[in-house]
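chain below, 97 aa
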Amino acid sequence: MKALFISYNQATTERINAMLDSLEIRGYTLFPLTHGRGSATGEPHMGNHTWPAMNSTIIAMVDDSKVEPALEALREIDRDTQLQGLRAFVWNVEQEM
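prediction:
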């Protein structure tokens, strides 16, 4: 089991949801309004007058077999929407209840 953390510009919400549905990643927690700034490029997403864009963030617990397909789908979304900003990280899940 892995934790898949995805932070993305809200403009790509439909594509992120479609990816989750297509891979049958059903259980997740959504943080609908998150602020962020890219580590190297891109504009900040702060939800204010100067930087009005906003991010959303999802954390999902996924089977190991779904990690690579999810990351590849996210890479494709990122390639298509480079200026929007998208980051994903994977962590090991030690225990679940």
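Residues 44 and 50 are 9 Å apart (CA to CA). The longest helix spans residues 64-80.
thats it, cya
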